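Researcher: Please predict.
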Amino acid sequence: VILAVLTAIIPSLITGDWGEWITTAITFLVISCPCALVISVPLAFFAGIGAGSKLGILFKGGISIEALKNVKFIIMDKTGTITKGNFVVQKITAAADLSEDQIIAMAAACEASSTHPIALSIMEEAAKRSATVQKAESIEEISGKGIKAKLAEGEALCGNRKLMDQFGIDISRQESGEGTEIFLALGGKFAGHITIADTIKSDAVDAIAAIKADGLIPAMLTGDAAGSANAVARTVGIAEANVHAQLLPEDKLNALKEIRKQNGAVMFVGDGINDAPVLAGADVGAAMGSGADAAIEAADVVFMNSSVSAIPQAIKIARATGRISMQNVIFALAVKLLVLVLGFVGFANIWAAVFADTGVAILC
């Protein structure tokens, strides 16, 4: 505005041609109108949000896209994020005098009244095998360890290693599997054990490969056992050095802060209510749409289809949006500066100024 005023007055006082220089000053004012910048940059981000929504990726605003294009580390929870969160019986090992069907039937009898996902997976396996599941005479839950039940054959135990140790059941010869292990004993003797594992999402391997191809480092933070976490990490292509297992919610947050301190901006992807603090603490928090409401509320981005492939897709959209918005800024300023100079030396009229304002805004 100051430049326009000076352009209108000073040359006019010298030349006396007020009409020409006032027209030039008005041209300056039209060119300097920031429509192209004010409109095109937000529109680039709105376009990014729209592109994401078509793929089931919901950005909660332009700030989320701006932050996402700068992340260096992609940190993921295991259960419900990389895996489906549906536990499936992988292996049944029975003692010499028992069959696999007898073991699964015994476990189902002990777990019949439980709604835990592991108990449900045992019940599903028993139904799949058409095993006859008897009703236990009594069931006692031992917190953090498992179940003690009274069956027709005698007292049965169904639980983890701690339960077996409590009742003096020798399981030292049993090899540890890659998953959650349920041990069974009958009448004070080891009867068998069941290995249960979560199933990996079908797109997880390709998605992790795409994340690496984008120059980002994938990592895993999980509350699950180290053996299970490392097995999943090996399958999908995450280096074991970047796997942090057996973490409580506060431990996850501390681990995330340490990774950020060493490597720069981080994105965390999770789905559970325990992930809410980490989602809020990350530079960008992303929640699976199938996850807990608290996680979705705390997240900056929501993947409605709950697929792992949405992670590299979101990063590509964020980077493309950043490039386009910067191109718009440079293009708009360059054209405006060019027309300003041409207008001052008399080669650009008011219509060139209109193009430099409205035309450039439309082109951006």
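Model: The chain has a mean pLDDT of 88.
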